[in-house]
């Protein structure tokens, strides 16, 4: 219980300090300014001098354990405060030295103990410390800070462009990009501030020299003229006190200037402080330690030089090098073992990954068809696949995922199969050394060969030899080679199942590209009105009925117009189709510019509208078995009339009935095209050739 109570008390104290830190700092700044004006008692000065030394030591140690300069971004302000604090102490101590010839125990101890009571030695030590601080550390830190500030400012535009590029590429999120931009601004501000803050340290060193001179001259004048002291006595008292005061102030100044140099010369190193990084880097090469040990041994045997220190250091350095070399060997052996393990595991992991991987599109070929695929054996099927993907992009407006082509020895040697998401959806057997002659219905003669059906459209065809090719062409047959058969088959499979190949990621990539040129419509639509998944479903509905999605800008603008009113996917799809009326009509217009259709009898249309039922997936036709069969027969009869006239099987109906009628007839009459009156472009001539009644 006592430990819990203590922990709560400590937590309370820390929390109060954090909450009131601004007040404490303000009081400290005001107190420093007061010290410049009001005389301080000697006991309070002793406490402040000790606090100054402690504060400087803490700052120095913090910089040593710091891993990144920005972790101590307050350092420039800290330098200003510490310099002002030190100068205030110097003013207070000067007032006491000149006024009372006594400035407390701390200054007296530094004057007697540190320099042995010899003010000449103390003065020399003080001047040495000033030279070290002013010429060596401060001058170097000032130059490093200046160069760092300049380089940081010059690099800002390039860093900003790099962040923007990573953001556009999806490597960084918006939050991560903002954090990186903030870090760049903080770096520029920090190094710019440090460039100026080093002047505080420089000015402090100069001020220390001036204060010492003033104290010595003033002390001699006061001691001789006012107190009647002999010149030697006055020099001993006042110079000793002045030197002690200078040393007391200069040691913290030296620690802070050292901290300044450490901060500006520190390169960012994740999870590693300066001691750890220095040890790791200096001991990275054991050979260097062995060479140093050998040199120390040679120096130890040189006549006149003390042997013991050199021999001791040689043994120590050599022992450290031996330990590091042994550790390096162990690490190397562990890395070799790990590498061997990874080499063993890698093929197995790769094989397992391949086994569980499901590609969107796969084409598996039998043994005899490998020559049609491999370019080394003269096959051009890979090039044809690339052309198919390009064709689909131009026609449908979507990027088809890469098609994976594999050999399958379990297949018939002359067969291939097409798989969609790992499931076979079509298979065909071809003869690689033959040609496929497609019947046009206008053949002048019958060919001898192996009768079959073309895989893409199911039209009658004949496998013929190369010697029959010319005869077939003269007889009005369409002759194609085996790679063309495969490519055409793949094209129709892709066209039929395009909606299944359109995933959320593909939709997201498409929207991101559109956002570059049309940001307004995308920002309005996403994410407030619709999600990427909802847009994907609308696009899939369009592709399911063979409607290209090339005009994405119109599609997105239409969705933005109506998404605020409804989020029903089927209804949004119909709105998009109406917006694409000109494009849809152009798909089915014939060469004479006429759209040939059949309509639905008004009475039948009313009965079907009454049969509509609502579900979560949209409206559907709730018909009995007999009614359903009768409707299918009527639609099929009307469709045959159009086909016999050489037209596309198009049924024109009411907007509410369009989608349910398409879904109802899809399984039985997949080729049927169902349009609504709202999808007719006013400039397109429509001719009704029949009626579903």
Amount of beta strand: 5-15%
What separation lies between the terminal Cα atoms?
A: 90 Å
Q: What's the total count of β strands?
A: 14
Discrete helix count: 25
Major sheet strand order = 2-1-3-4
Largest sheet: 4 strands, mixed
Structural class: alpha/beta
How many discrete structural domains? Answer: 6
The outline comes out as elongated
Low-confidence stretches: none
- Helix coverage percent: 55-70%
Average pLDDT works out at 78
Rg, please? 45 Å
Task: Provide a short characterization of the protein structure.
The protein is α/β, with parallel strands linked by helices.
Q: How would you explain this protein's 3D organization?
A:
- The chain is 66% helix and 10% strand.
- By secondary structure, the protein is of the alpha/beta class.
Structural key phrases:
single chain, 693 residues, alpha/beta, four-stranded mixed β-sheet, four-stranded antiparallel β-sheet, elongated
Any chance you could write out the topology, listing elements then pairs?
Elements: H1 2-19, H2 21-37, H3 42-65, H4 75-100, H5 105-114, H6 119-168, H7 174-226, H8 231-265, H9 274-282, H10 286-300, H11 307-356, E1 361-365, H12 370-373, H13 381-396, E2 403-407, E3 415-420, E4 423-429, E5 435-438, E6 450-453, E7 460-464, H14 469-474, E8 478-480, H15 482-496, H16 498-501, H17 504-517, H18 519-525, H19 532-544, H20 552-562, H21 569-579, H22 581-588, E9 594-600, H23 602-610, E10 612-615, E11 618-621, H24 625-644, E12 650-653, H25 655-665, E13 673-676, E14 685-692
Parallel strand pairs: 1-2, 9-12, 9-14, 12-13
Antiparallel strand pairs: 1-3, 3-4, 5-7, 5-8, 6-7, 10-11
Helix pairs in contact: 2-4, 3-4, 3-8, 4-7, 4-8, 5-8, 6-7, 6-8, 7-8, 10-11, 13-15, 17-18, 18-20, 19-21, 20-21
């Amino acid at each position: 219980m006592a430990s819990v109570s203590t922990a709560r008390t400590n937590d309370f104290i820390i929390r109060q300090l954090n909450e009131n830190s601004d007040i404490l700092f303000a009081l400290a700044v005001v107190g420093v300014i007061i010290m410049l004006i009001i005389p301080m008692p000697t006991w309070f000065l002793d406490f402040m001098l000790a606090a100054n030394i402690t504060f400087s030591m803490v700052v120095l140690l913090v910089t040593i354990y710091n891993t990144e300069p920005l972790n101590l971004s307050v350092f420039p302000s800290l330098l200003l405060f510490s310099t002002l604090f030190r100068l205030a102490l110097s003013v207070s101590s000067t007032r006491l030295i000149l006024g009372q010839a006594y400035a407390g125990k701390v200054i007296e101890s530094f004057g007697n103990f540190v320099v042995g009571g010899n003010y000449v030695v103390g003065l020399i030590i003080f001047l040495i410390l000033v030279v070290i601080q002013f010429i060596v550390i401060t001058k170097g830190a000032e130059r490093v800070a200046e160069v760092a500030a300049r380089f940081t400012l010059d690099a800002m535009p390039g860093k900003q462009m790099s962040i923007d590029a990573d953001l556009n590429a999806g490597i960084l999120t918006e939050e991560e990009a903002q954090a990186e931009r903030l870090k760049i601004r903080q770096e520029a501000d920090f190094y710019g501030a440090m460039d100026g803050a080093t002047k505080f340290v420089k000015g402090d060193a100069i001020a220390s020299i001036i204060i010492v001179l003033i104290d010595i001259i003033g002390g001699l004048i006061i001691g001789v003229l006012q107190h009647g002291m002999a010149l030697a006595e006055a020099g001993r008292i006042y110079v000793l006190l002045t030197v002690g005061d200078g040393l007391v102030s200069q040691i913290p100044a030296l620690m802070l200037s050292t901290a300044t140099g450490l901060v500006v010369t520190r390169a960012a190193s994740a999870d590693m402080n300066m001691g750890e990084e220095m040890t790791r880097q200096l001991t990275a090469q054991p050979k260097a330690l062995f060479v140093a040990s050998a040199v120390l041994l040679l120096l130890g045997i040189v006549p006149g030089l003390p042997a013991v220190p050199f021999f001791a250091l040689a043994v120590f350095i050599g022992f450290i090098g031996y330990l590091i070399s042994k550790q390096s060997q162990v690490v190397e052996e562990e890395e070799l073992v790990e590498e061997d393990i990874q080499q063993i595991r890698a093929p197995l992991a790769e094989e397992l990954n391949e086994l569980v991987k499901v590609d969107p599109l796969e084409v598996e070929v039998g043994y005899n068809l490998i020559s049609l695929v491999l370019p080394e054996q003269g096959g051009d099927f890979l090039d044809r696949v690339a052309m198919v993907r390009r064709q689909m992009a131009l026609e449908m407006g979507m990027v088809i995922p890469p098609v994976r082509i594999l050999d399958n020895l379990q297949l018939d040697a002359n067969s291939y199969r097409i798989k969609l998401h790992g499931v076979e959806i079509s298979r065909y057997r071809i003869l690689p050394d033959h040609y496929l002659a497609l019947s046009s219905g206008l053949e002048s003669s019958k060919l001898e060969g192996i009768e079959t059906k073309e895989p893409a459209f199911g039209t009658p065809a004949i496998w013929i030899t190369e010697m029959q090719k010319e005869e077939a062409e003269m007889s009005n047959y369409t002759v194609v080679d085996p790679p063309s058969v495969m490519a055409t088959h793949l094209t129709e499979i892709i066209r039929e199942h395009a909606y299944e190949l359109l995933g959320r990621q593909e939709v997201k990539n498409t929207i991101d590209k559109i956002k570059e040129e049309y940001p307004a419509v995308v920002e309005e639509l996403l994410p407030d009105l619709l999600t990427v998944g909802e847009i994907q479903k609308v696009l899939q509905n369009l592709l399911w009925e063979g409607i290209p999605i090339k005009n994405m800008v119109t599609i997105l603008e239409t969705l933005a117009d109506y998404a605020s009113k409804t989020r029903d996917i089927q209804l949004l799809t119909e709105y998009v189709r109406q917006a694409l009326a000109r494009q849809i009509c152009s798909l089915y217009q014939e060469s004479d510019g006429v759209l040939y259709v059949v309509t639905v009898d008004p009475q039948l249309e009313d009965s079907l509208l009454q049969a509509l039922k609502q579900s979560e997936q949209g409206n559907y036709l709730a018909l009995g078995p007999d009614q359903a069969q009768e409707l299918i027969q009527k639609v099929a009869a009307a469709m045959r009339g159009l086909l016999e006239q050489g037209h596309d099987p198009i049924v024109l109906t009411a907007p509410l009935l369009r989608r349910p009628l398409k879904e109802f007839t899809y399984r039985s009459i997949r080729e049927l095209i169902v349009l609504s009156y709202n999808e007719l472009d006013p400039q397109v001539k429509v001719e009704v050739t029949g009626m579903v009644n």
